[in-house]
Amino acid sequence: MSDNWVVANIESAFNTWNDKMTEIWSLVTTSPQSFKGGGIWSIITSINGGLQAIGYALLILFFAMSIFKSTASFRDFQRPEYALKHFIRFLAAKVAITYALDIMTTIYTICGGVVDSIAGSLGGIGGAAVTLPSAVETAIEDAGFWASIPLWLVTILGSLFITVMSFIMIMSVYGRFFKLYMYTALAPIPLSSFAGEGTSQVGKSFIKSYIGVCLEGAVVILACLIFSAYAGASAPAPDSGLTTVTMVWKYLGEVIFNMLVLVGLIKGADNIIRSMLGL
Fold it and tell me: Which of 9, 27, 159, 236 is placed for a possible disulfide with 254 were both Cys, Cβ 3.0 to 4.6 Å?
């Protein structure tokens, strides 16, 4: 890192951005079972097992509600197909609650395969790394004392903005990861709604929403790859004909704009998936 404070500050902000980009790639391609050594997954597994008792209680409640709501008279139960339909619904809900954890992990594995396929076929995100051009670094180091004063202000504002965007971006990805844990932990409760014909829509919405959260990883990966290609094709070129302050301000402005594109895509990953799945 350069001895010049202005250059060092910009490089520090770029390093923060690059580190968060690498962390995002690692997070999206990591399974919930192996995240942080599996400690969090053990807690989620325990919660899921503890909520099965509540799920069974709701199973009976939803089943009874469905029976009383759809039965005009007890003569309906004399028809085998009617009784069989309710029995199959009850049995399916019972199996869903019992194997809720397996169902959730299977869905994640399928969706995770999509993410891994995209990540593996399109390569890494090396092109998304941001570095300070040597021309800008040389111009800053050659600037005199009085010219450096406005550079400090420009650098502080630009570096602060880049750092804040880095943490907003990584927090969005962590939020998606924690949503996976919450869905898995609480799965027995919404899955119990399959026992009732009128309440089964809750379970269907839950499954669709969970698939959406899983597929957000694919959107994040694609956003990173699009940003990598976009940033490489539209990398701002320093204009040596400008004053040092103007050149640095223009360069940082274009870099920040490119970063905003990626942050917006990652923040909007859930909306993209919801629109695709009709949620």
Answer: 236
Q: What pLDDT was estimated at residue 1?
A: 52
Nearest one of 113, 150, 180 to 249, comparing CA atoms? 150
Measured CA to CA, the distance from residue 106 to residue 112 in angstroms comes to 9
- Count how many residues are written for the chain: 279
User: 């902000």: which residue's tokens?
Assistant: 13
d(CA 22, CA 125): 8
pLDDT in tens, 131-148: 776 777 777 766 665 566
Q: What is the DSSP letter of 129?
A: -
Count other Cβ atoms within 10 Å, centred on residue 260: 12
Nearest-angstrom CA–CA distance, 238 and 139: 10
Q: Which two tokens stand for residue 168?
A: 């907003």
Host H or E run for residue 276: helix 269-277
User: Is the confidence at residue 124, as pLDDT, over 70?
Assistant: no
Checking if the pLDDT of 76 tops 60, the result is no
Question: Could you list the residue range(s) of the whole structural domain that residue 124 is in?
Answer: 5-277
Phi first, then psi: give them for residue 60, nearest 5 degrees. Answer: -65, -40
Which uninterrupted H or E stretch holds 167? helix 145-186
Read off the DSSP letter of residue 193.
G
How far from the centroid of its chain's Cα atoms is residue 16's Cα? Answer: 19
**How many domains is the chain built from?**
1
Tokens at residue 105, please?
């992990």
Q: Which two tokens stand for residue 39?
A: 């400690």
pTM: 0.78
Which long-range contacts link 42-47 to residues 24+ away (Cβ below 8 Å)? 44/181, 44/184, 44/185, 45/101, 47/185, 47/186
Nearest to 20 by CA among 183, 127, 129: 129
